[in-house]
Amino acid sequence: MIMNKFFKIILFSTLLITVSAVSWAGISVKAYVDKDVAHLDEEILLNVVVEGAPGDAGLPKLPSMANFNIYSTGQSRSVSIINGNMQSSVRYTYVLSPRFAGKFTVEPIALEYNNKKYYTEKIDLVVVKRLTDKQQFGNAKEIVGQDLAKTVTTKDGKYPNELIFMTAETDKKSAFVNEQIILTTRFYSATENIFGAIYFPPEFKGFFAEEMPPEKRGVEYINGKNYGYVEYKTALFGAGSGRNKVSSASVEYEYKTGSVLDEFFPGFFTSSSKRATVKTTPITLKVDSLPTKNKPANFTGAVGEYKISTSVGKKEIRAGEVFDLNTKISGSGYIRSLTLPKMPDSENFKIYDSLEDKIEVETKNDVLQGYKTFRTSIVAKTEGFYVIPKMAFSYFNPKTRTYEKVYSQPIKVKVLEAREGVGGKLSFTEILPETIKKLGSNINYIKENVETLPGDFAGLMMLYNAGGVKFSIFVIIIVSFVVGFLLREGSQMFTEERICSGILSDIGSAKDYEDIIKTLKGFFHKCLKIKTTKKVKDISKELTKKGYSSNLIKAFTNIWTELENVKYAPSKDGYDIKDLKQKTLAFMDLMSKEMKSRKKG
User: Residue 30 class from Cβ within 10 Å (0-12 exposed, 13-18 middle, 19+ buried)?
Assistant: First the structure.
């Protein structure tokens, strides 16, 4: 104890001395790219490095870059102290995906801190088409002296005698509610002398819209000229009956008014340029109501073609325990709007609300298709052999213009007797709905309130998460601890065993099963880097991957399952806290031994 107090006094003194000596270096912002010339189908990495700024300096502000699709891949930080000066460096990385060929400029990127702005240098980029694309547009014409700064529209199937224009058409003029309509938009160009083009999709009032990637590129011979085109497709689904309009799609671009483009680097111009816009003609579509004749009682609005299947994780379950029924609805149509039909009532099972679990959507042969899964929580009431009844799903098939119904297969399950506790066998009574909480797409078996490191370490983590001066204090404290660690020969302060032992010490003082769960969750998060929001079998798989023995995994499964049973038991008064502590400590003792043996190995 005396040694610990003395060590803390040294740390505090070191902190005061260091804080007075350390100062932040000047702030600077730099930006660079991994390539300044890229092909149209390549990505460009943009790095923004901020040096000398504290943690609360904020994010750099990117300028408008409409010719690129941009997304961030994260950031990294480094801090060092050299000759009394603290140097902090943060690197932000972005991916630029070119949308059009040409010459572009990334304007200076800004960082604002303490009412002062810092800027990077501008960056010039060149995006070129690949040679195969250039060959496709081989007979492109020079547009010197021609005025393209006007709006060009098209009418049903008629192409204008223009070098640049757009078209829009649908595969049908009318459809039922929720039936797929394909909108195809094309941007045509018979010249390469355009750059900086930006595509603006139409507005879809009264429709649900789903993009159908990827964009398609090709060449079409029209009015004696070869036109290159870019095609965009969108799946539309009418939200309600009536006539709804799809507004114009447009492309805004620049074109050169001087000499032709450079042969190898399209987009390099020395002459002046103009901006122009080309757009499509709006389209009016008729959406019809679904027929009321022969509409099934369980119909929930699905239109297309579907099938349904159900499954459970295991065919043997215990009375009074929660298990999942997984339902998958797959097929073609507006997948995101699918809802799960009501499950049939059963006197042998208690059925709770279902949660959406996963959605997968893809385009195949111009048809939107995929699947949607649901997870339903079920509790078996008594032991015996039972059947989870088949589930019916109804949909309207626009091809046959009839309502159709599909069924899942019934599932046979064996329900074992309830687990025995200190107070005897668990008897099933009504479980209140609030005992099962929704968390995204799964059951919240274990609370997520994982504490930070015990004792004084919690304060350090709070300093780490703060910015500015607090962050610098955090770094200083860390440096002081490292110095103290070197001075105290043989200390094990920062070893994994010390951290874990601090977490495990809470088991002995646990007042109820929730304290034990919280402690175990902290251990798995901090020491094993395993998420405890997963199911028991998934955590067991993680332990297996990390090389732990089958005996340890079996011990973990037993204690975790017992804690879950206590959590969801109809009555939580019948468990023995001492017995739970002993079993948990036995598991942790086994875990500690294996961790030490792994380190020695």
Answer: middle
